[in-house]
Every structure is written in structure tokens, then in C-alpha cells.
Amino acid sequence: MKLSKIGPRLASIVLLLSLILPLVSLTPGPTLAADPRPDPVHPLLARMMDENPDGMFRVIVMGNGKPDRLDSEVDRKGGKGKKSLPSIQGVAAELPTKAIRELAKHPDAKWVTIDAPMVPTVDASRLATDYPKAVNAPEVWNGDRKITGAGVTVAVLDSGINSGSADFIDPSTGNNRVVGRVKFNSNTTSGNDGYGHGTHVAGIIAANGSASRGRYIGIAPQVNLVNVKVSDDQGMSYVSDVINALQWVVLNRAAYNIRVVNLSLVSAVAESYLTSPLDAAVEMAWLSGIVVVVSAGNLGPDSMLYPPANDPLVITVGAVDTDGEEDIEDHTVPFWSSYGQTQNGFSKPEVVAPGRRIVSNLASKSAVLARQFPDRIVDYSYLRLSGTSMAAPIVSGIAALALQAHPKWTPDQLKDVLITTARPLDSAGDGAGEVDARAVVNKENPGSANRGVPLNLGVAATAGTLTYDSATWNSATWNSATWNSATWNSATWNSATWNSATWNSATWNSARPD
Fold first, then answer.
1. Is 158 a catalytic residue?
2. Which fold has domain 119-442?
3. What angle do CA 14, 20, 23 make, to 5 degrees?
4. 232 is catalytic
5. C-alpha closest to that of 476 among 488, 461, 462, 454
6. Choosing from 87, 389, 427, 490, which is the catalytic residue?
7. Residues of the chain with CATH 3.40.50.200
8. Is 197 a catalytic residue?
9. Is this model's pTM higher than 0.85 or not?
10. Out of 158, 233, 311, 430, which one is annotated catalytic?
11. Residue range(s) of every CATH 3.30.70.80 domain in the chain
12. Catalytic residue (choose from 42, 106, 197, 200)
């Protein structure tokens, strides 16, 4: 079967993957397995190639330090749609099975995996307009310091942002607060949002209420945004698009003061964070001083297997159903919010935030989500959606508030504060609990999360352990990791029982009615 038939379907299916043995423990320091990997190919890709010896597949080849030679080798083997991925010293391309097997044996190739579709974690249905109150954001806006996210920038990696609404205009200056636009999807010529997901996410973070006379306000109503379009107008993107987008964010973080990146997307293919190129990219962003906030997914219990939500460094966010109640005792985790153990034994998500029936900005009435759910259009210019896609930007907004109040906080410090100030719920899958913006902003003397966490094998400099405690905004740079020093043979690649996966076993249910 050709990839052209496989790729689009991946965005609408659940891969029921039984991943049994953790590769690392939660104890400090790296955990290195004794057995070398038998084949530097993602097991699911290997299985697909066995079943389709004449097939074509979109793959990512992670390099071994000589990306130019690897790039040339992909050309020689007839790679189509090639993309260079300098941040991971790799290349993405569509290749036949035989060429992939040959590349896997090439001395300049380290690891070959699927260039998987990214799945927007939206569950378009539900409604709640009380989410700022639920996380105590108004008390931060109206407190003594008037913290609104001013001066901080959040990069939104999504389907684009239609920024014409008054909600994204600074009323005091008339300037648009979407201060940058860049596109990383080759299937669209515009940075606009024809799908409707990215604009909704952006409004949850940053809407100032001007277009609704204050009825619908985001968490950080004076924060700046950068529109990083990775999905096309059907909500479709690939891992390679997101990797290159993350590299752009890191390289341009100082120009825009990007302190937070929001990823309301998950890969359609499960993979250990130790080998995932997408997890490598989010870790590089994290180590460069950017807080990475990721939605957990909408697959319910025992489903924390998909990059980047399974990466232990980043802040993974599950959803809460407030049911319109301000009292936290009435808040519950809906059945569809993903939670559980990752392949490597880490519990996810870290925190939860309101994610059911969230009203935010409508990209346009012609956007795909608006046409799919016309009964969810609210007050002509807004749309109500549900999913962990809606919960993640609430935490991104809180991160922006915190970084305005505490500009020297590192990502590890902010993660520690989010976890230690969260309010536990009597509900499975709540992580440390529901986030509290007031408690986060008022926190002093933060601790440091991620102590002793082994890094992705493409990022680890020596032993594979994150040890920096005194890191500041500029202390970790994109080039600080030595890619060649990672020992890829230290992981046991046979720990997953891949034969239990049923490729067409279910649907992703990325959008469903109440």
C-alpha cells in the first residue's frame, strides 16, 4: 500500500499499542538497558514494510553527525518530498521499502522512524465560559500587580491564527498582538486558519474580550502571539513539519521574546520518548529556555504513548470538566482525557485544566470546524469546543502570566510551581491536580522539576541526565547538546509488543458531539 493511502488515514485512527516494559525508571540518573537494538528502525515501520515490500513510506532518518552525506544518500535513493531537519541532523522523505532498509544500514543513519501525521487533540462539542474563573485568572489580572501576560510571547504551533478579531488588537495602541507569522506546511499557501483549531487555541490564550464586550476573555489578555502554522486547512500536519517549526521558534526566540510554545497536537504513532525525533525537538526547545506545553490527547486511560505528550520534560495537560461550577469539588476529569504511564514509566499528565465546552474565537464561518459543527457557533464570532487541545492553552496562558511576574524563572522552575500549586481532584487522571493561576503567580522561591530525568538519546550530551539547576534564559543554547555522544544502543528496542496493534482498530474521535 502506498503512503499516499496510509498517511491521511493516520489522522483518523487510534493505534492500540501494547507497550509493556519501561525503558527507564523514575529514579534520578539514566537507566541504560544492556541489550543492543537489533535494528535501528521503528518497530511499527518495520512491520509495515514487511507487509508492504513494494510500498512507499514517509520516514524521518535521524543522522549520526554528517547530515550532508545523509541528505545526498536520500537523494540517490530517490527520496520524494525531501525535507532537511537540521535540528536533529536528519532528513524526512518518502521512500520505497528497499531504500529505507538500505538507509537503516548506512553508517550516517542513527534511527529511522515514521514521519507520522499530527492529530489535533480537539473534541469539538461542549461549552463553558467560566474557565478563567475556574483557574483564578481574574484575580491575577486585577491584583496589585495587574498581571496580564504583557511583554511575553507565546508561539502557537497549530493550524494558523486568523488575527483580524478585535480580541487580538491592543486597544491602547491599535497594534495586532499576533506579532509574527511563519508557515511550515507545504499543503497550504497561506498562514491563515482554514481549519479553525489554531484560532480557537490562540483565543483561549490571548483574547482580550474586545469583540465580545468582555464576555469571552483568554487567560493572558495582553500576551503577544506568534502564529506558527504547521497544519493545513484540514488540520493535517506531519512530525517533520513540527520539528522544523520548533527549530524556528528556538532560533527566533530572542527576536520575539518567545517564552512559551503551545502544542495542542499529538503524533498518530506511539514511540518511546528516548528515540522520538519529535520528543528530541521539544527537549531542545525546553533546554533553550522555552516552556513547552502539550495537550495530553483524547484517548482516555492508559494512552500516554504518543509524542510529544509522553516526553517527561515538558508540561503535559489533561482536561477538566467544570460543569459550569466554580467550586473545584464539582470538577472532574472527563472519560476521554488521556492519562497513564508512558512507555518509559513516567506518569502523565502533570496537571489538568478546563477543557470541556470551552468558548473561544471562531476563525471564520467557512472554517472546517465551523462547518462541521454549526450548532457550536456562539454569538456569531465564537465557537465552543472540547478536548485537551483546549486545556493546554489555558496552561500556556498561565505560564505567560507567571513569566511576566517572574521573568527569570526557568522552564523547570515554572513546571515545579505548576505542579506544587495544583489543586488535587478526586478523579483519576488529574496528575497533580487542576492548575491555579493565582497560586502560580504568587509563588516565591520555586523548586526545580525534572531532576535526574534521562534525556532523549539524540539530545543527551553524556550520560543522558538533565542536571542543570541554575540555568537561566540564556544558559542553555541550541548547540549545547552533542548529538554524537548519545549511545543509541543503550535502549532495549524489543520491549514493546507491537503485534498487538490493530492498524485500523478504531477512530481517533478528534471531534464528536456531546
1. yes
2. Rossmann fold (3.40.50)
3. 110
4. no
5. 461
6. 389
7. 119-442
8. yes
9. no
10. 158
11. 23-115+487-494
12. 197
